[in-house]
């Protein structure tokens, strides 16, 4: 026994004596690439390999991992698809051998980017994981892949769209897992490589694109505010502009901001704690926006200083006045969400208290008036993916009604169902292989309505648990898929307008504990990342439980409230097909 332990210790010390410099070279990488034929239809290009050690890299103040300093091996190589003259570039960061903890983390992008440059990879290295990203064949222009979705005006380039939709991430993940095992000599059949996903927004959609299709995709997926239900998500960005145009009133940014500020002030206490954080946007809607209180914002004075031109944006003049009744009516209509001309609900709106970024107007220096400014994030969807024109926005919204928005949603849903829509509700293969999902969504997200994630969680619950009661099905779902609404948080980030809100910065640590140690999170670990309480810990409630603060508590109680669950379960009765 003793002798066995001794030799095992020698083996261990010998193994950990391997340094980054020993293995971080093009020749070592070449000798450990996945074998030809490992992934059908792909050919790796060994001549493209680069590998260099990077020491003492530091990262600061990131939403998804704590500050850290670390060493890594920076590896890249390319592959092509057999029969196509394309080139896909992969990047993997590998921890030093003595820091490697048998983990692989796949990462993605945001907006129309398929990766986040070097922003997401440290999140893996810090936890002893190899971390990977892909350019999915889009090259350096991957930061806006949309400029490559058409082969010509009128012709979609479906290969590129599939690469963006899910194929690129799948290939990067499968090649990355194999490469990791080979690089670290994980040849014994009893050594497990734990595999993870972490991404937010488009990165959240990319995570779901894998979990929904591949039971073997990851052991744990961390998915924030996913940009899924694609055609709905992209089109709803235009709804506030159409409201302004339809109602004929264009509030200035300052007037909008005043309405948001008042909403935060009045709704803050509804969660039981006056901390500047709207922890209960459901109550905010029913007890403030829908109630008469909201109209009392009209008449309140607002004032904002002029701003200089910054980064291509034109200067804005000083704005002051009293909030008008029309401005209040416009915002109330926006918060009601998109309905068709027959009054049936098409989609949800961002929560009250969220910044009204989508509703921003533009200043006309000639007429000295605020007017329509079409948000390009939504307009580019219509221009490129619906109208098949290689532009970056639609020129205007002339003739566009609420029904037009519904039609764009339907057309997009049919066109992209199998590649981008990403709301397949049956996760049985993933659940059966033991996969876990931790989904979170800022409850003050301006861009992707928080209700979008709630709807998907509820759709999966219903589809996977036929015949079970709400409580039984929710409990079954929570065994592998948990949803956390983050009080006050904006889109994939802590919210400067609600600085005392928590943000779940340590999600990967929480997921590792769930996957590797069987410790399921009952609440989600989070930290105040800014302001006077920076560093303070707060726990976030798991859906369907909702936060209620008691005096002097450090975290809210998590309670089941039927009214709240009912509030979040919107009926999209404008459609007679299921919308998951
Ligand atoms: C990420 O890239 C930026 C810009 O190229 C660079 O300044 C920074 O050091 C990089 N971070 C790491 C951790 O390598
Ligand atoms: C990592 O490798 C890529 C590709 O060779 C290179 O462009 C980049 O500068 C490297 N990064 C660092 C920090 O060495
Ligand atoms: C689309 O426009 C981009 C520039 O925004 C350009 O790089 C690209 O070549 C164009 N594609 C086509 C098919 O015209
Ligand atoms: C893997 O094994 C080879 C051969 O024993 C050795 O040279 C190499 O350093 C090992 N790699 C690591 C990361 O331990
Ligand atoms: C794997 O098996 C080897 C030999 O069969 C044994 O020495 C080692 O401890 C095992 N490792 C784990 C993690 O169980
Ligand atoms: C809104 O509140 C912020 C503080 O969160 C403040 O800086 C800003 O001036 C306010 N804007 C208006 C229009 O009242
Ligand atoms: C709404 O107005 C009523 C009557 O003024 C007041 O009692 C209540 O506290 C207000 N609620 C909110 C959320 O502001
Ligand atoms: C704004 O409202 C205040 C009272 O709150 C009033 O004194 C002032 O005249 C109003 N200003 C304008 C421009 O209507
Ligand atoms: C700005 O206002 C002027 C004068 O009313 C008008 O002629 C012009 O079309 C406007 N510009 C835009 C971009 O709407
Ligand atoms: C394609 O459409 C864009 C956007 O409308 C336009 O700017 C461009 O000129 C068109 N290209 C061709 C070749 O017609
Ligand atoms: C929870 O967050 C705190 C900071 O708020 C951090 O110190 C702690 O390590 C985190 N716990 C886990 C399991 O990551
Ligand atoms: C909360 O703390 C304050 C100040 O520390 C104290 O006065 C108050 O009694 C406490 N309330 C409860 C319910 O413990
Ligand atoms: Ca509060």
UniProtKB/TrEMBL annotation:
Pfam families, A to Z: Tannase
Single GO term (MF): feruloyl esterase activity
Keyword line: Calcium, Disulfide bond, Hydrolase, Metal-binding, Serine esterase, Signal
EC number: 3.1.1.-
Keyword NAD on entry: no
The UniProt record lists the keyword Lipid metabolism: no
InterPro entries found in the cross-reference section: AB_hydrolase_fold, Tannase/feruloyl_esterase
Signal peptide from the UniProt entry: 1-17
Family listed: Belongs to the tannase family.
PANTHER family noted in UniProt: CARBOXYLIC ESTER HYDROLASE, FERULOYL ESTERASE B-RELATED
Protein name: Carboxylic ester hydrolase
Species name: Cladophialophora chaetospira
